[in-house]
Write a structure and sequence with these properties.
single chain; alpha+beta; 3 domains; nine-stranded mixed β-sheet; five-stranded mixed β-sheet
Length: 441
């Protein structure tokens, strides 16, 4: 007989997985975030895990290095070239979805998606090859109300408060402030400057200035002005006066300041819980499609950790598919990045592994069909029930319940009795009315 090969189990780098205790918390987070999105009237869509590889690669930049192509191991040539690929964010799938279902949607289209995405990252803290994103966007035809500039980050704040993820700092800026300011300084390569200045929290100011003057060729006084703007921070509207004091005046610059001030007013008048709203004129969101307000959020207790939430206003979502202009505002919560960090730091300790409320004990004298009917009666009332899987000694059934942290043990009979394993108390119970503490009140 051929010896059976035993494979050694080992984790797959960049693909997180949790014990049942931690996974239950993650699932509760997902449910809570979903419920928060829906309270604001956002509808759920789910797109396939794959899109056309050509479509994903069309986003440009180095994105082709991040894409996982989908191909059969036993490729007979039919699928050669990986026509399909796993999506690396939810923006491209949403664009395709909106274009495809354009005539069936009501605009403004308020949608959310909670799905896994895949990227060819080098696994490290805060970066995964497979991770869960929670995106919420509103998309409209031709123009979109600036009310959503404030509503979108507020939704994210309330979702994160609801799961207890704070404290979190939400940093806001407006791309019009940056582009208007750079135009006023006579800078022609504003996009290149934006991408450099966006690193202000990662590199020393002197290094940013060196790149601006050396690699981009800006005059020293112009580089210093760019740095001065990028270093403005405030939790109220003082940022606008400080920015104006730098001496630049033009319409885009003033428009951006006015729009950002309106968003800050709305946020500061709202309940933000453990979240802080901060105008931060150093953030830019390097992606070129952002045209107005932009957002980034970080854990206040771990300021060196990666951004856990980001987004902004964009001019057109579906330009690659249809001729209509469909601008939008959206934000993405990097749930896996956030959750993994809090697990690592001991901020999430897990819940009991099993959702079972009550274990029905099983002895030789019990009719298993009667126990099944009892379990069914309890389940129809919203109680999570297990019938012990075999006849066994009471101590074995006790041990099973304790190991799974099942709070109640039910003894079928006339009368029925339930033992509260935490309190050590046993009392009579009516299957038609008894409730576990979880459902009481």
């Amino acid at each position: 007989m051929q010896k059976r090969k035993i494979l050694k189990p080992k984790p797959i780098s960049g693909f997180p997985e949790y014990t049942p205790e931690i996974r239950r918390v993650e699932m509760r987070w997902i449910d809570t975030i979903r419920e928060t999105f829906e309270r604001y009237g956002y509808v759920n869509i789910e797109t396939p895990s794959v899109e056309e590889a050509e479509t994903l690669a069309a986003k440009g930049g180095d994105v082709d290095k991040e894409i996982y192509g989908l191909q059969r191991l036993n490729d007979d040539g039919e699928d050669k070239g990986a026509r399909l690929a796993l999506h690396f964010d939810l923006t491209v799938p949403t664009a395709r979805y909106v274009a495809q279902h354009f005539n069936d949607l009501t605009f403004p289209f308020k949608r959310y998606q909670i799905q896994r995405v895949w990227r060819g990252e080098r696994p490290q803290e805060g970066r995964f090859r497979e991770f869960l994103q929670c995106d919420v966007d509103v998309i409209d035809q031709d123009g979109i109300s600036h009310d959503f500039d404030a509503e979108i980050p507020l939704i994210a704040m309330q979702a994160l408060n609801a799961v207890g993820a704070g404290p979190i700092r939400f940093m806001l800026n407006n791309r019009k402030i940056l582009t208007g300011f750079y135009q006023g300084l006579g800078i022609e390569n504003a996009g290149d400057v934006i991408r450099v200045v966006d690193k202000i929290d990662k590199l020393p100011a002197a290094e940013i200035e060196r790149i601006l003057t050396g690699e981009l060729g800006l005059a020293a006084d112009i580089a210093k002005a760019c740095l001065a703007l990028a270093q403005i921070r405030s939790t109220d509207n003082r940022f606008a006066d400080e920015a104006r004091a730098l001496g630049v005046q033009n319409d885009p610059f003033e428009e951006g300041l006015t729009e950002l001030a309106a968003v800050m007013d709305r946020l500061n008048a709202s309940e933000k819980g453990a979240c802080v709203a901060e105008a931060n004129l150093g953030i830019a969101r390097g992606l070129d499609y952002y045209t107005g307000v932009v957002y980034e959020a970080q854990l206040i207790d771990y300021p060196e950790y990666s951004t856990i939430c980001a987004g902004g206003r964009y001019a057109d979502l579906v330009g690659a598919y249809i001729k209509s202009d469909l601008p939008g505002v959206g934000i993405s919560i990097g749930l896996t990045r956030l959750f993994a960090k809090l697990v690592k730091e001991g901020k999430i300790s897990g819940e009991r592994a099993s959702p079972t409320d009550v274990l029905i004990a099983r002895f030789p004298e019990n009719d298993v069909l009667a126990l099944d009917r009892l379990a069914s009666q309890l389940r129809t009332r919203g109680i999570n029930v297990e019938v012990y899987h075999e006849t066994a000694k009471l101590k074995n059934q006790f041990r099973y319940a304790e190991r799974k942290a099942i709070p109640y043990l039910w003894f079928a009979g006339d009368p029925h009795e339930v033992k509260d394993l935490g309190a050590g108390e046993q009392s009579q119970a009516d299957p038609a009315s008894w409730l576990p503490s979880r459902l009481q009140g």
